[in-house]
From TrEMBL:
This enzyme's EC code(s): 3.5.4.33
Top EC class for this record: hydrolase
Cofactors required: Zn(2+)
Residues at the active site: E48 (proton donor)
Provenance organism: Isachenkonia alkalipeptolytica
SUPFAM superfamilies hit by this protein: Cytidine deaminase-like (SSF53927)
InterPro entries xrefs: APOBEC/CMP_deaminase_Zn-bd, CMP_dCMP_dom, Cytidine_deaminase-like, MafB19-deam, tRNA_aden_deaminase
GO biological process terms, semicolon-separated: tRNA wobble adenosine to inosine editing
Catalysed transformations (reactions): adenosine(34) in tRNA + H2O + H(+) = inosine(34) in tRNA + NH4(+)
Keyword Zinc: yes
Binding residue positions for Zn(2+): H46, C76, C79
Record-given protein name: tRNA-specific adenosine deaminase
Pfam families reported in the protein's UniProt record: MafB19-deam
Protein backbone atom coordinates (compact mmCIF):
# COMPACT_ATOMS: atom_id res chain seq x y z
CA UNK A 1 0.00 0.00 0.00
CA UNK A 2 2.94 2.31 0.63
CA UNK A 3 3.89 2.11 -3.05
CA UNK A 4 0.27 2.86 -4.04
CA UNK A 5 0.39 5.94 -1.79
CA UNK A 6 3.56 7.06 -3.62
CA UNK A 7 1.63 6.72 -6.88
CA UNK A 8 -1.12 8.86 -5.37
CA UNK A 9 1.50 11.51 -4.55
CA UNK A 10 2.50 11.54 -8.23
CA UNK A 11 -1.12 12.22 -9.18
CA UNK A 12 -1.32 15.03 -6.62
CA UNK A 13 1.82 16.66 -8.07
CA UNK A 14 0.03 16.72 -11.45
CA UNK A 15 -3.13 18.28 -10.01
CA UNK A 16 -5.00 14.98 -10.22
CA UNK A 17 -7.06 13.44 -7.43
CA UNK A 18 -4.31 11.62 -5.51
CA UNK A 19 -5.25 8.01 -6.03
CA UNK A 20 -2.61 5.39 -6.70
CA UNK A 21 -2.82 1.71 -7.61
CA UNK A 22 -0.44 -1.21 -7.68
CA UNK A 23 -1.01 -4.63 -9.27
CA UNK A 24 0.98 -7.50 -7.76
CA UNK A 25 1.30 -11.19 -8.61
CA UNK A 26 3.44 -13.66 -6.68
CA UNK A 27 5.19 -10.80 -4.88
CA UNK A 28 6.14 -9.08 -8.14
CA UNK A 29 4.82 -5.63 -9.05
CA UNK A 30 3.25 -5.92 -12.50
CA UNK A 31 1.89 -2.39 -12.72
CA UNK A 32 1.92 0.98 -10.96
CA UNK A 33 -0.50 3.75 -11.88
CA UNK A 34 -2.13 6.92 -10.67
CA UNK A 35 -5.11 8.98 -11.76
CA UNK A 36 -4.65 10.80 -15.07
CA UNK A 37 -8.27 11.77 -15.76
CA UNK A 38 -7.64 15.53 -15.92
CA UNK A 39 -4.45 15.29 -17.96
CA UNK A 40 -5.92 12.85 -20.49
CA UNK A 41 -9.44 14.33 -20.26
CA UNK A 42 -10.63 10.75 -20.21
CA UNK A 43 -13.28 9.53 -17.78
CA UNK A 44 -11.75 6.05 -17.59
CA UNK A 45 -8.22 7.19 -16.68
CA UNK A 46 -8.60 6.06 -13.06
CA UNK A 47 -5.54 4.57 -11.36
CA UNK A 48 -7.21 1.14 -11.16
CA UNK A 49 -8.08 1.01 -14.87
CA UNK A 50 -4.59 2.12 -15.87
CA UNK A 51 -3.01 -0.51 -13.60
CA UNK A 52 -5.30 -3.20 -15.03
CA UNK A 53 -4.33 -2.22 -18.59
CA UNK A 54 -0.62 -2.37 -17.68
CA UNK A 55 -1.17 -5.74 -16.02
CA UNK A 56 -2.88 -7.06 -19.16
CA UNK A 57 0.20 -6.05 -21.16
CA UNK A 58 2.64 -7.48 -18.61
CA UNK A 59 0.88 -10.87 -18.60
CA UNK A 60 -0.16 -10.70 -22.26
CA UNK A 61 -3.66 -11.66 -21.14
CA UNK A 62 -6.94 -10.02 -20.22
CA UNK A 63 -7.17 -12.47 -17.32
CA UNK A 64 -5.36 -11.23 -14.22
CA UNK A 65 -5.95 -14.34 -12.13
CA UNK A 66 -3.84 -14.64 -9.02
CA UNK A 67 -3.24 -10.89 -8.78
CA UNK A 68 -3.87 -8.40 -6.00
CA UNK A 69 -4.75 -4.79 -6.71
CA UNK A 70 -3.77 -2.27 -4.04
CA UNK A 71 -5.59 1.07 -4.27
CA UNK A 72 -5.46 4.09 -1.99
CA UNK A 73 -9.22 4.71 -2.19
CA UNK A 74 -12.27 2.48 -2.39
CA UNK A 75 -12.93 1.84 -6.10
CA UNK A 76 -15.94 3.15 -7.98
CA UNK A 77 -18.44 0.96 -9.86
CA UNK A 78 -16.51 1.28 -13.15
CA UNK A 79 -13.25 0.16 -11.58
CA UNK A 80 -14.94 -2.58 -9.56
CA UNK A 81 -16.53 -3.91 -12.73
CA UNK A 82 -13.15 -3.91 -14.47
CA UNK A 83 -11.70 -5.92 -11.58
CA UNK A 84 -14.44 -8.52 -11.88
CA UNK A 85 -14.10 -8.67 -15.66
CA UNK A 86 -10.31 -9.02 -15.51
CA UNK A 87 -10.53 -11.79 -12.88
CA UNK A 88 -8.43 -10.03 -10.24
CA UNK A 89 -8.26 -12.31 -7.20
CA UNK A 90 -7.96 -9.73 -4.44
CA UNK A 91 -8.52 -6.04 -3.84
CA UNK A 92 -6.89 -4.15 -0.96
CA UNK A 93 -7.86 -0.51 -0.53
CA UNK A 94 -7.12 2.27 1.94
CA UNK A 95 -9.67 5.05 2.36
CA UNK A 96 -13.40 4.54 2.07
CA UNK A 97 -15.33 6.70 -0.43
CA UNK A 98 -18.74 7.62 0.97
CA UNK A 99 -19.72 9.40 -2.27
CA UNK A 100 -18.79 6.79 -4.86
CA UNK A 101 -17.36 3.65 -3.29
CA UNK A 102 -18.46 0.33 -4.75
CA UNK A 103 -17.14 -1.86 -1.92
CA UNK A 104 -19.81 -1.06 0.63
CA UNK A 105 -19.89 2.71 0.99
CA UNK A 106 -22.53 3.37 -1.69
CA UNK A 107 -23.02 -0.11 -3.12
CA UNK A 108 -21.20 -3.38 -2.66
CA UNK A 109 -20.55 -4.63 -6.16
CA UNK A 110 -18.45 -7.50 -4.84
CA UNK A 111 -21.30 -8.98 -2.80
CA UNK A 112 -23.50 -9.54 -5.86
CA UNK A 113 -24.05 -13.29 -6.20
CA UNK A 114 -24.77 -13.32 -9.93
CA UNK A 115 -21.28 -12.41 -11.15
CA UNK A 116 -19.22 -15.31 -12.43
CA UNK A 117 -16.09 -14.13 -10.60
CA UNK A 118 -15.56 -13.14 -6.98
CA UNK A 119 -12.95 -10.67 -5.80
CA UNK A 120 -11.76 -10.94 -2.20
CA UNK A 121 -11.89 -7.44 -0.66
CA UNK A 122 -9.97 -5.95 2.26
CA UNK A 123 -10.63 -2.29 3.07
CA UNK A 124 -9.19 0.24 5.46
CA UNK A 125 -5.52 -0.71 5.01
CA UNK A 126 -3.37 2.32 5.96
CA UNK A 127 -6.68 4.16 5.91
CA UNK A 128 -5.45 7.17 7.84
CA UNK A 129 -2.48 7.78 5.51
CA UNK A 130 -4.64 7.29 2.42
CA UNK A 131 -7.38 9.58 3.77
CA UNK A 132 -4.88 12.26 4.76
CA UNK A 133 -3.54 12.73 1.23
CA UNK A 134 -7.07 12.91 -0.19
CA UNK A 135 -8.36 15.30 2.47
CA UNK A 136 -5.36 17.58 2.08
CA UNK A 137 -5.77 17.64 -1.69
CA UNK A 138 -9.43 18.62 -1.55
CA UNK A 139 -8.84 21.24 1.18
CA UNK A 140 -6.15 22.85 -0.99
CA UNK A 141 -8.39 22.68 -4.06
CA UNK A 142 -11.25 24.42 -2.21
CA UNK A 143 -8.86 27.07 -0.84
CA UNK A 144 -7.41 27.77 -4.29
CA UNK A 145 -10.88 28.06 -5.84
CA UNK A 146 -12.01 30.40 -3.07
CA UNK A 147 -8.94 32.61 -3.56
CA UNK A 148 -9.46 32.67 -7.33
CA UNK A 149 -13.09 33.66 -6.88
CA UNK A 150 -12.14 36.45 -4.45
CA UNK A 151 -9.48 37.74 -6.84
CA UNK A 152 -11.97 37.75 -9.71
CA UNK A 153 -14.54 39.66 -7.64
CA UNK A 154 -11.90 42.20 -6.60
CA UNK A 155 -10.81 42.71 -10.20
CA UNK A 156 -14.42 43.20 -11.28
CA UNK A 157 -14.96 45.84 -8.57
CA UNK A 158 -11.84 47.72 -9.66
CA UNK A 159 -13.07 48.00 -13.24
Amino acid sequence: MTLAIKEGEKAKALGEVPIGALLVKDGEVLAKAHNLREIHQQATAHAEILAIEQGNKALNSWRLTGTTLYVTMEPCVMCGGAMIQSRIARLVFGAYDPKGGACGSVINLFDKEDFNHKVEVTGGVLEEACSKILTGFFQELRRTKKEAKAAKQKAEKEQ
